[in-house]
DNA sequence: GCAATGACGCTCT
DNA sequence: CAGAGCGCCATTG
């Protein structure tokens, strides 16, 4: 069987994010086994369907800010979802990665 | 197979 | 702390 594509790894890593915690694209990329491919993480998230089971809303950028897609401001929805999980935003709409930032530790080290 | 794109990251100013 | 510039890698056309 063929090995999972980078996107699949990214989705798997995103699913590992516990509820009430947030991760960054860089960490997800690292967990996916492709460090430095933070852009692909965001790209993969953008390719996610609306009915996906992946907690994409728990994935934010390394600046602790919620990235935005095209159109209006879908970031508000992501913020709402995170707040519903217990993640607090500051007045600037920023999340304290020091508090909610969860770095998934990879089980397989090589 | 090559060129362009893209929910990004890090460093310097 | 905020803003701007360069580099990164995988997917799509």
> What is the residue-averaged pLDDT?
86
Q: Class in CATH?
A: Mainly Alpha
What structural class do helix, strand and pairing data support?
mainly alpha
Q: Into which percentage range does the β-strand content fall?
A: under 5%
CATH topology: Arc Repressor Mutant, subunit A
Instruction: Provide the helix percentage.
Output: 25-40%
Strands in their spatial order, largest beta sheet: 1-2
Task: Characterize the largest beta sheet: strand count, sense, and whether it forms a barrel.
Answer: 2 strands, parallel
Shape call: globular
Order of helices and strands: HEHHEHH
The CATH superfamily is identified as Winged helix-like DNA-binding domain superfamily/Winged helix DNA-binding domain
**Overall number of domains:** 1
Quaternary structure type:
single chain
**First-to-last CA distance:** 22 Å
**How many helical elements?**
5
- Tell me the total number of β-strands: 2
CATH architecture descriptor name: Orthogonal Bundle
Low-pLDDT windows of residues? none
Query: Which value, in Å, is the CA radius of gyration?
Result: 13 Å
Provide an overview of this structure.
The protein is globular and about 45 Å long. A two-stranded parallel ribbon has the order 1-2. It is mainly alpha-helical. The mean pLDDT is 86. It contains 5 helices and 2 strands. The structure holds a DNA duplex (13 and 13 nucleotides).
